[in-house]
Amino acid sequence: MRINHNSYESQEVQPSDQAGGVFDILTPELMVEAVEKALGCSMTGLAIAMPSYINRVYEFQTTGKERIIAKFYRPGRWSYRTLLDEHEFMHDCHQTEIPLVPPIQLSDGKTLAQTENIYFALFEKKSGREFDVNTEEDWIRIGSILGRLHAVGSAKNAPARIKLHPLDITTEEVKFLTKGNIIPEPYRTEFKAICEEIIELISPYFNDIEYIRTHGDCHRGNLLERPGEGLMLIDFDDMMNAPPIQDLWLLLPAQADECRNEINLLLEGYEQFCDFDYSTLKLIEPLRVMRIIYFLSWCATQLGDYQFENLYPDWGTPAFWMRENSDLQLQLQLIKQSLN
After folding, report:
1. Domains of the chain and CATH, by start
2. E-strand stretches of the chain
3. What's the whole-model pTM score?
4. Which of 2, 40, 77, 217 is the right S-S partner for 107, CB 3.0 to 4.6 Å?
5. How far is CA 310 from the centre of its chain?
6. pLDDT tens-digit profile of 83-94?
């Protein structure tokens, strides 16, 4: 099975967090008690686990029948300050009526609580269906919501969140992947050489451009349609400081040169609410390769995790790294073409 590079998580999961053991203490009784204390109201015994690989997400119910979603953040992934940056961004968006579900203000006035050294936040339950992009108007609608998002994102900084620059992020990812025995020789030497060439080539293009608060992981799975209400953005976990194009390119169905019409439609909607620097379109393929390397690094932190190894049984084998090096070499050629 090939890795889907368009569905990454942050690499900040520590090796000690593997195999899910950090969450073993989260019994239903403990979670219900923690939620009751945070909200200052009584809950029923309902505790329904929701799909989530990294965090632990549960649905609870107040005695008044209100459904609440609790997200328990994996220890070691984010600091308290980085979580607050996420919450502040979501709050700012909510204040300007951008459709999303902000964290609930708790009984102490905060949006982040803690139990057994595990941070958690609570959200109103809102459901929707994944948005199917079928028409030109659909692309314009997506562009519009992202334009609104970035108008808010550019108004403040997120000092604790990462800056998506090759020299700040990708260099460290390559160092991590090429130390120890993660990549066997001779593939390690080849991988390092390709990545170093990529970083040297693309880094100058990330200088002297605008960086703003972005969603950071804005693929189609994080856009929901609520019948009668419209689009809604979800999952701000990987919020980051990045060029605005970061939130647009992940939505494209293919390489940039094959998606001119989709890009034009996205920007038609986007520029109703926010200016766009067209020179940053050349960053699409560099950002794609950065995401590939980012995701490879994150996967390497999951080695030893039973669920991960069941999903990707050939991850890390010589055949796997042969394919990855070949893909990176192809991406390097695409980048050279796109930057000309």
Report:
1. 15-126 (3.30.200.20)
2. 43-50, 56-62, 67-72, 113-115, 118-124, 129-130, 212-214, 223-226, 230-233, 240-242
3. 0.89
4. 40
5. 23
6. 999 999 999 999
